[in-house]
Amino acid sequence: MEQSDSLVGKKNHLAIYGISFRTFWCSPMPNLSHFVVLPCGDRSLNLIAYLAGFLACLATCQVGADQLDLRRDATVQAVEQVMPSVVNIRTEILLDRRDFYYDLLWDFFGPYYRQRPPESTYSLGSGVIVHDSGYLLTNAHVINRASRIQVVLHDGTEYEAEVVAGMTDSDVALLKIIASEQEGSFKAIEFAAEEDLMLGESVLALGNPFGLGSSVSRGILSSKNRRPPSEDQPLDVAQWLQTDAAINPGNSGGPLVNLSGQLMGLNVAVYKEAQGIGFAIPIKQVNEALSSMLTSERVMGFWFGARLNAAAQPPQILEVMKEGPAYEAGFKKGDRIVKVGAVKVGGFFDLLRETTSLPKEATLAFTVERNGQTKGLSMKWVSEESFFNADLIHSKTGMRLQPMTARLARHLGMESVRGLLVAEVESGRPAYRAGIQTGFVLLECDGEAVGDLVSLARKVHLADTGTELKLTLLVERRLGRLMTLGKATATLKLE
């Protein structure tokens, strides 16, 4: 009792006996968490009780809304953000070939397109829009046999599309939706930072397979450096992302995204000998492919003479070729292009859109940012053929080459040969010392097929004096009246 009397003396109301209590609640269905108990004799506690009851009432009124919001978690929000950027890609006319790409297509889509009659539309994969003007990414193996490409958006709208560039070694292709300006812009996906990949983080594989509707699967990022199953590694990709998110048939070329809705990679393949293992091309390699593909040389056939970083915003100069138009205009490594004319450039595709929309004879005005200051530069497009041509090759090798046209091939009895004909060899020059003769056909240079003068001239121009080139040539061999064609190799040292 002494302890109780002491408590009463200190007005500790929780220890007073015989006091009546009030109970407050505001929910139609009482919940113990909403009860507030207080003694009648303390006004300050009464005020606190009323406030607590009011707050509890507000929380109860929101129960229905909270239950609905629980369903719209990070996964749902990411899907809602990204899905308008995901497209189905339909192609027409596939050539009947057997190689790695044929097997890949057959494994993914054989059960579907075996039922299709010849010349019909085949739904072969997915893609993702990367710029509001209609540029989109997919896998090169999805479109590399297509004579016609159709794109179906998330809402069912159909467009024709054209190939801007593609690289089989990286299996990345860039397409452009053919649409009028009146049809508005497209919803583009946001790119993730190249190194912002966390093992074990949740990822989503999205697609629009076969034009049947949107597809989403969820998993985790299992590995950042898995090698793909391949046939002698024809894709030359050593570091793909691995995920256990199901990459279903038709999802190839669609986006692999994080829970922020950012593009981490392009879905590309599944491992046939295992369950639940899929692969995606990481965003870093996608950016590298774009930097190589999206050049004025590839897109327009004009020489710019500089390589840009596709991931940088605004675009950044990575390399400037000496004697090139960009070099002559004053561009330097590290420059960021912030404007074309009066138009601000936010990213790589903005730059591409603005430069390709100008007339070919126009003078291009650029504003670049260098060391914190802006500088104006101007240049004109230069045709590649005006610099990268037979004359340049002759100046460094001493041999004059010419394209192997169909008429020339028939005249020489080499209809199936693809290469460059050696039309002249200058005595005492590198080609002469390498044993090359007039009439030989150049097939390969350093293991790469020689398709045209421009590509070979660019390679020769970039090589330093004294560089040795390994050439593969087609030569005639005569035994009496019998003539045969055979391959020979030669090493040529550039002047």
Describe this structure as you would to a colleague.
The chain has a six-stranded antiparallel β-barrel. A hairpin with a 2-residue loop joins β28 and β29 (about 480-495). It contains 14 helices and 29 strands. α11 packs across α14 (about 455-460). It is globular, with a radius of gyration of 33 Å. It starts with a helix and ends with a strand. It is about 25% helix and about 35% strand. The relative contact order is 0.07. The protein is an alpha+beta fold and about 500 residues long. The chain folds into four domains: about 1-65, no CATH class; about 75-290, Thrombin, subunit H (Beta Barrel); about 295-385, Pdz3 Domain (Roll), CATH 2.30.42.10; about 390-495, Pdz3 Domain.
Specify the CATH architecture of the largest domain. Beta Barrel
**What is the total tally of β strands?**
29
Distance between the termini: 111 Å
- Largest beta-sheet characterization: 6 strands, antiparallel, barrel
The residue fraction in helices comes out at 10-25%
Helix tally equals 14
Amount of beta strand: 25-35%
Summarize, please.
This protein has 495 residues and is α+β, with helices and mostly antiparallel strands. It contains 14 helices and 29 strands. The strands form seven sheets. A six-stranded antiparallel beta barrel has the order 3-4-5-8-7-6. The protein has a six-stranded antiparallel beta barrel with strand order 10-11-12-15-14-13.
